[in-house]
Each structure stands twice: as structure tokens, then as C-alpha cells.
Amino acid sequence: MGSEESRAGEEIAGRPTSLDLLEIPHRVLLIEPSEIERRWVRNELIAGQIDVFEATDLITALRAIGLFKPNLILAQLRLPTFSGLELVRRLKEEAATDSIPVLLYSEIATADERIRAFELGATDFVTKPFVGAELLARVRLGLRTRHFMTILEQRAQLDGLTGLANRGFLEDRLPREWEACRRRGTSMAVLMSDLDRFKLVNDTHGHAAGDEVLRQAASCLVRCVRTSDLVARYGGEELVVVAPDCDLTAAVKLAERFRMAVAGLQLNVRGTVIEVSASTGVAASGDAARINPAELLQRADDALYQAKQSGRNATWFWDQRQGRSEPVQDYLLTED
Ligand code: GH3
Ligand code: MG
Ligand code: MG
Q1: Dihedral (Cα; 128, 134, 139, 142), 10-degree rounding
Q2: How far is the CA of 247 from the centre of ligand 2 (A)?
């Protein structure tokens, strides 16, 4: 029995938990109106290696959130003017703050208040008396839970093979970026690229080599775009760029940059040099944003289809005036 116990203990100790608090974001905003109380809580947190920022009421707290960007908020329920419940309500209303865990504490709180806090979205509620170690343990649990949720949320938005955004994320972001560009009165461009004869790469060199080619082509595309552009894996070997504040000329140049960069890649996969090319369809909304985001994607897809039809390793764009796709060579010649 004794040895079983110690084995179980060893297993837990050796588990790759990575739960060292220093690896987990640990910035806590403490909201407490009483100076004495605030000092006590702050010292407990600092002793637990938490970075603490302080506020005394809801108004100063809201201001502090923007500056300090806390990973968790620890707030007294009884705040002057607005209560801790109002704080939770306001934070959960705003997209920028709704994911920050809020832990409330209080001397006395009715069951109704505690229930209301949870209904509004508070993560935890501690009623006094509590010792510092318990408060710290709950704060750490809140930080850890938020951290792992953030990792899961990010993973749900990423493509496992290429590390690019996945299609779900793209479909979520595309209309929002389009709307932001429409408000600014700028053009938004969408590029849809597809690797040429990729099936042949798989058939000739194997699926693992194909995966490596796809990964490298994705990195190549990321290197061609601006940091504000979104690059996503749309399907098997189809990559999409959403480029805000980007007109047709800039988008076409970007597509050509990518086409030439991919064609220049000499991919060395386990001793074999593999060459690959890509075709791209480009569509831009124009300043007036007459095309909605779904149409924009569709136009880029149409242009991509034409690029493939034309023989591949090509860029075609959607010409709004003509109402059809055109090869970029003609466009670049007339622009320059
Ligand atoms: P085209 O020039 O017309 O685009 O020809 P293609 O061979 O690239 O097009 P097709 O759609 O016929 O084939 C796409 C291939 O991409 C088939 C599929 O096996 C491969 N593919 C899709 N996703 C992956 C992946 O994640 N890894 C690998 N290795 N291959 C993939
Ligand atoms: Mg293909
Ligand atoms: Mg394809």
C-alpha cells in the first residue's frame, strides 16, 4: 500500500504539467477601496509572485484595464458608487474585456449576490474569512484556467499542418475586416492561391513530402504579405490572403511576388529537390466596397479557376469594370 502511494505520488510529480506560474501570464488587477485591505491582499499576491496593479473603484479600474492589460481581476464586491456586480456586467459586455476572469470577494454576501455574480460571468466568489493562501490558490487557478482556454481557443483557430489560420477563423474575420475597410473607405483585397499539380507531388514523392511542400509554400506566402494581412489555409492546398487597406494594384503585385517566390523555392525534402508552382486569383473591393465579402472570395476563386485554365503558374484578377477575370500581365503592363 505504502509503495503504491509513493508510486502514485511520483507519477504526479513527474507529470509534464508546465504549471509553473511564471510560464503562465500572471498580471492581476486588484480593486479594493480600503487602503489597509488592499495592502494585505497585495502583499499576499506579491508573495505568490503575482504582478499586481491596483485600483480603488470601478472607474479607475476600467481605465487601468486598458493600461495594465490584466490576466485576471480580483475585486471587492462592495465598491463605492458601482458594485463589483456592475463591474462584472460591464466587463462581460465588451469584447475587449469579456474573457478576463473576474474573481470577487467580500466580507458578507447574500446567496442572491453570489448567484448573480456567477450569472453575470464571475469566475469565482470568495467570502471571508479566508486565509491569504486560499485567495492565492484561487487566483492561480483562475489564471491557469484562462491560460489553457486561450491556448485551446488559439488552436481551434489554427491549421495544425501549416500553422496558418484555419478556414473557420477566416470566415469569421473576413466580414469584419471588410466592414472595417468599408468604414475607412479603403479597398480590401482577397487572394486565393492553389498549388499546381500538387497531387503529382504526393504521387511522386509521397504524402509526407507533400506536407512539407505545403508547409514551406505557406511560410513563403506569410513572408510575402504585410503583418496586418490574414493568411489562412482555406482547403487542402488552397491558401487565402485577406489584405485590408489594399487596392487591386497592390494585391496583384503581392500575388506575383508570391508566384515568383514559390516558383523559386528549391525544396529539399529528404535529399530530393522538389519544385512547385502556384496559381492565384485576386479580387479587390475598391474604395466603394461594392462587392460584399462572400462575393469577393467568389471572384478570387473565379480568377483562380481562370489562372488554372490558362496553364497554371499564373495570376489572374477579377476585373470589376469588365465583369470577368483577366491575366495580370496585361494589367501590370498598363499600370506601369
Ligand atoms: P491543380 O493544378 O489543378 O490544382 O492540380 P492539383 O493536383 O493540385 O489539384 P487536385 O485538386 O486534383 O489535388 C489536390 C491534391 O492536394 C490532392 C490531395 O491529396 C492533396 N492534398 C490536400 N491536402 C493535403 C495535405 O494536407 N497534405 C498533402 N500532402 N496533400 C494534400
Ligand atoms: Mg492544386
Ligand atoms: Mg486545390
Answers
A1: -100
A2: 26
